[in-house]
Amino acid sequence: MSSLNNPNPNQDTTVYLIDNFYNFELNVDAALYDAVLSYFRTIFTDNLTAENFALNIFRISEATGTNVLEILDSVRGQEQIELTATFSYYLNNLRSNTTLLGVNAVTQPAYYAARNVVV
Predict the structure, then answer these.
(1) Is residue 56 included in any domain, yes or no?
(2) 33 lies in a domain?
(3) Are 58 and 28 in contact (CB under 8 A)?
(4) pLDDT tens, 35-44?
(5) Contact indicator for 54, 75 with CB cutoff of 8 Å
(6) With 0-12 CB in 10 A as exposed, 13-18 as middle and 19+ as buried, what is 75?
(7) Do the domain assignments include residue 98?
(8) Which residues pair with 28 in a beta bridge?
(9) Res 6: pLDDT
(10) Would 6 be classed as within a structural domain?
């Protein structure tokens, strides 16, 4: 008979993370996901925001090869604005340069290059 402290070894104890927008899929340990998600739930009041940050920390870990707990320790103690800036830095390395996060400057194309663009 299983309880919360003793999981049933016949059941799968992994979480399947899916992000359809970025086409990202990953199997992670349920205990590790719960630890990361519970940390972000203490920072953010919105559950969806906490889940998105938890998903993104696993995306960063997968892309950089860094342990999730090491990344979590590096962002521990940061406020919401600091977390957003840190995650923007990491996620910008995973994205196309045309869709960077946290960049407010609008880039102006060269006049002759812009003239040749057909809309």
Answers:
(1) yes
(2) yes
(3) yes
(4) 999 999 998 8
(5) no
(6) middle
(7) yes
(8) 15
(9) 57
(10) no
At 97, phi and psi to the nearest 5? Answer: -65, -15
Q: How many domains does the chain have?
A: 1
In whole numbers, what is the pLDDT of the chain averaged over residues?
77
CB 101 within 8 A of CB 86: no
Domain span including residue 65? 14-115
Residues linked to residue 17 through DSSP beta bridges, in sequence order: 26
Residue with tokens 């009041």: 45
Whether 1 shows a pLDDT value over 80: the answer reads: no
Q: What is the pLDDT of residue 4?
A: 43
Structure tokens at 74: 């590096």
Rounded Cα gap, residues 13 and 31, in angstroms: 8
Q: What is the rounded CA–CA span in Å between residue 62 and residue 71?
A: 11
Q: How far apart are CA 61 and CA 19, in angstroms?
A: 15
